[in-house]
Amino acid sequence: MTPTAVASLPHLGVLRFSGADTLRFLQGQLSNDVERLPASGSLLAGLHSPQGRVIAVLLLLAGADGTVLAVLPQELAAAVSTRLARFILRAKVRIEDASAQLAVFGVEDPAGRRLLVQPRDAPAPAGESMPQSAWRAGDIALGLPQVYVATSEAFLAQMLNLDRVDGVSFTKGCYTGQELIARAHYRGRVKRRMQRFLAPDAAAIAPGERYRLPDGRTIEVVDAAPRRAGGWELLAVAPLTVGPSGEDALEDPAAPCLLGAQSAPLPYALED
Description:
14% of the residues lie in helices and 32% in strands. By secondary structure, it is an alpha+beta fold. It folds into 2 domains: 5-186, Probable tRNA modification gtpase trme, domain 1 (Gyrase A, domain 2, 2-Layer Sandwich); 191-264, no CATH class.
């Protein structure tokens, strides 16, 4: 039997929500139907600006005693906590940045892959050690979006394929940014979406960087991880259709650098 692989993920932080109104509060703030959060399992959701821009992508987990844990990049945890606290008003909700008390691990076995959140002073899960970069590469292969400080509020929900990875509910009640997200869903085709690419000769790639592909398209990096064979694989928002050749941009000093990257498959369709 294939052994369990475990990756320590120190780049991820955890917010803890508690109080009698926790689910109702999150329901009004996040893009997914929080009432669907299973007792064991997870639920992906986006926190958006009123303009429908993704502030953060949260993976929700049901905690003990009715609490909800939200896993997100640690560099965004404090800002997201502060932002959400503004909307508590009279609701019985407490938001705590528990990143200093809770550690996040990625666990992969024949049954699948999942995140495990546990106290930092608890023993690490048993299993073969997996590099953090390998776990992130697995997320990229699955087409799972992420947002960092460099890309917070840079993309609309559909640009990050949140509607393709069950991160948006179009049947729940109102939430911040819903109007623009629903309009993009019901009124027309999204022209730019997150896509997967392989860049075998790249030295380093980071979220928020912009590049030009050999086919002329300009892309903006969502997430990237080094490949074992060398180079990088990445998720980047790019036009769905190839436009005119970008050769003329080679003479433009303001044009993004050329990146020798090829398209790679995703496990879901980008268009209906």
